[in-house]
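User: Predict the full complex structure for these chains.
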Amino acid sequence: MAHTLDHIDTQILAMLQNNSNRTTKSIADELGMTTSPIFERIKKLEKEGYIKKYVAVLDNKKIGLKLTVFIGITLQGHTRSYLEKFVKEINNFPEIVECHRVSGNFDYLLKLVVEDIEAYETFIISKLTLLPYLGNVQSLITLSTGKETNEIDLSRV
Amino acid sequence: MAHTLDHIDTQILAMLQNNSNRTTKSIADELGMTTSPIFERIKKLEKEGYIKKYVAVLDNKKIGLKLTVFIGITLQGHTRSYLEKFVKEINNFPEIVECHRVSGNFDYLLKLVVEDIEAYETFIISKLTLLPYLGNVQSLITLSTGKETNEIDLSRV
DNA sequence: TCTATTTTAAGAATATAATTCTGTTTAATT
DNA sequence: AATTAAACAGAATTATATTCTTAAAATAGA
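Assistant: Here is the predicted structure of the four-chain assembly.
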C-alpha cells in the first residue's frame, strides 16, 4: 500500500533530486534528526518508487553532443499497431532522448541530442524519413537553452 | 586544460549516467581494474565538468505531477533586452523544467510539468499570458511518453 | 480515558565503501 | 637509452552506509 508523503519526505526528495551524493548525516543535520530515520525513509522512497534511480548528469556539449533538436511529427495512419511500431522504432535510435505522444498540432514530439547540424541531417535523411506513414515533420533547432533540468518543484505537492 | 576521453572514461560515464550509486569497486571489476584509478578518473571527470552533478530521478506521476506539456511561443518583439527579460521571467515559474530558444516555427519551446489540466490552465491564464509581447502560443499536451531520459548514448563519442 | 499496537526516532555497533598513500609499472619525451 | 610524467595496484585509513536495540510518540480500540 502506498503511503502519503509527509513534509520530511518531501524535503528529503527535494535535497536528493538536487544532489544525490549528500550523506544521510548532512540531510539529518539539516532536518534536525539522526541518520537512522533518514536512512529508512530514503529506502522506503526507493522501494515504493518515488525515487526511480540515481544518475550522473553529464555535460552533453563537453562530450561532443552540441545540438538539441525537437521534432514534431504527424503520422498518416493511426492504427494502434502502427503507433506501437513507430514508438518501438524510435526508441531504437540512440539520438532520441524523449518521445512523447501528444495532442495538438502533432502526433509525436521527439527530443534528440546530436553532435551537430550534419548529424541532425543524417538522422533525418537516413533514419527518420525511412519510417512509413510519416506525415508532416517540423523541426525546432535549439539556439540556446535558458533552463533544462529534471528537478521538479516540490513546494507545491 | 581539457584532456580527451579515452575508452575507459567513456565506459565509466556510461555506467554512472545509468546508475550513479554503483561502487567504484563494481565499476573496477567490470573494467578489470582496481578501485584507485577508477576513483581518480571519476574525480577528474567531475572536476573537469564532464559530470555536472548527481541527482535522484523522481517519479513525477507518483508525486502528483501527472501532466507534461510542451508550449511553443512566438514573441512580438525581438529586442535583446526583452528576450533576456522573458527568459528570466520564465525561469521563475516553478512549473517550467525546460526553456529553449529555438529556430523554426517558434521563438521558444517550453516544457512544463504540472498536476493536471486545471493546473495547466491556471498556468496559462494567470502566468504565461500576463507576459508582454506574447505572440502565438501553441500547446502540445502529452498523452503518453514512450521514452524520457537524460542518458545519452556514449558509443558514438 | 486507559491499554494495546504500531510507527517513528535515537543512539550505539557493525559492515561497507570511499579516500588516501606508497611503491611499481607503463608510457611518453628528450 | 635515460629521464620524466602519468596511470595503476595494493594496502591502510577514514568516512559513511547499514543494522540492531531500545525508547518515545502516535494511533486505534475498548
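The mean pLDDT of chain A is 95.
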